[in-house]
Amino acid sequence: MSGKIVGYSSAAAQKPEANVQNGLEKWLNERGELAVRVTPKAAKNRVTCDPETGEVRVYVTVVPEGGKANAAVVKLLSKEFGIAKSRFDLIRGQTSRDKVFAVLD
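RE: above sequence
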């Protein structure tokens, strides 16, 4: 896949995006928080990052009911960045598509 995007799709390929596995640090703000835009009920689970805007988008297939989508987002971020699920703490956006996670040490 040579550094393009995770979860390849032809529509997303028209924008230059970086592979999220390039490292978590570059996507954190100055307080060590990760802001993401979530799309529930997506066709497939994937994470994309746009290096130009610094935007991280997370697409999950589950419905946003009873915290299922939030749990799926944490699981997917954990897998993509290669760190434990317990290190992600949702601090803003429990019921919003725009979420902010603290990344714990």
